[in-house]
Amino acid sequence: MRIALLSYSTKPRGGVVHTLALAEALAATGADVTVWSLGRGGDTAFYRPVDPRVRLSVIPFPAIEGEGVGPRILRSIAVLRDAFDPEPYDIVHAQDCISANAAGRCVRTVHHLDTFTTPELVACHERAIVQPYAHVCVSAAVATELSEGWGIKATVIPNGVDSSRFAAAAASTPTAVAARSVWRERLGRYVVTVGGIEPRKGSLDLLEAYSLLSATDPDVRLVIAGGETLFDYRDYRARWGARAVELGVTPIVLGPVADEVLPSLVAAADVFAFPSAKEGFGLAPMEALAAGVPLVMSDLPVLREVFRDAATFANGPQELAKAIGQALADPAPDQRARGRVLAAGHNWQTAAQAHLDLYDSLR
């Protein structure tokens, strides 16, 4: 079977992580898989090495100084559409709004549903939902949103996770211990979150919670990793920075972290915080569970569905601060053990086979 998977970026965002892992698992079954994407910022390859059995087609997408989000979205669609030829493929599967608009007739994975105000994004989002002929969701909660909002029935295929990679980072081997020690020596005790500073990630709530936590546990640091995004969150980040000054706290903002050291950063943390306002699955916190790190996250239906009794749920700064403080004081080994089991149960081989079954049903 010849499969094209389309993504909007080569950067380490959740949808791109999903696309590459799925492509590799599909290729391992013998499928002929090509990943198409835009190479933003001069990129000619993805953020990590990819299994050579997967073909890659990275389309140059140079930055334009001063380009707004709307025009950048329209240009992204046009550049990918002009480069992509669907003819050789049995299945064309778009993984996001931009690639679904560019692909033509396609299957679409809806990772989560957004609410946009930029007119170009509003139109892009709507077309990417109504035009594909088949839909996949990574959780039943998102599938329900799709059904109730658009009358579309989606196939639910949960994400996999590379649990062995993150479990290995938490192991007692000399290599793993040394890698964690690098972060502990640099950061001390810390709460980590992955996803950057942006509205959907609940960054302001986490900042407020950290301020409350610092009053009783001043030695704990807040560490923020990631943040590569297509969108312009400069105003939000400016508000976040100004609020940090007002609160007198200084979180450590690492920005994007190299793929090879991300597992040790997560495994060395005392708590993983994930106060998102909108999610489709939660790949980064599932990786934290694989590493045995206590998890505190937003009380959203989708996260309740996916994480069940392996996480502590909290909403708002007060609840977040209390839950993180409790996790620091009592890491709850039974809950962490449940988390490891949960993460190990999500694998890309199962996800790939479910996709192949869907593809076969569509041919």
From TrEMBL:
Q: Which residues form the Glycosyltransferase subfamily 4-like N-terminal domain?
A: 13-165
* Top-rank lineage group of the source organism: Bacteria
* Gene3D superfamilies, sorted: Glycogen Phosphorylase B (3.40.50.2000)
Entry's InterPro entries? Glyco_trans_1 (IPR001296), Glyco_trans_4-like_N (IPR028098), GlycosylTfrase_MSMEG0565 (IPR023986)
**Keywords from the named record:** Glycosyltransferase, Transferase
- In this chain the Glycosyl transferase family domain maps to 189-336
The answer to whether the entry has keyword Glycosyltransferase is yes
* Protein's UniProt keywords contain Transferase: yes
Stated name of the protein: Glycosyltransferase-like protein
Give the species this sequence originates from. Kribbella orskensis
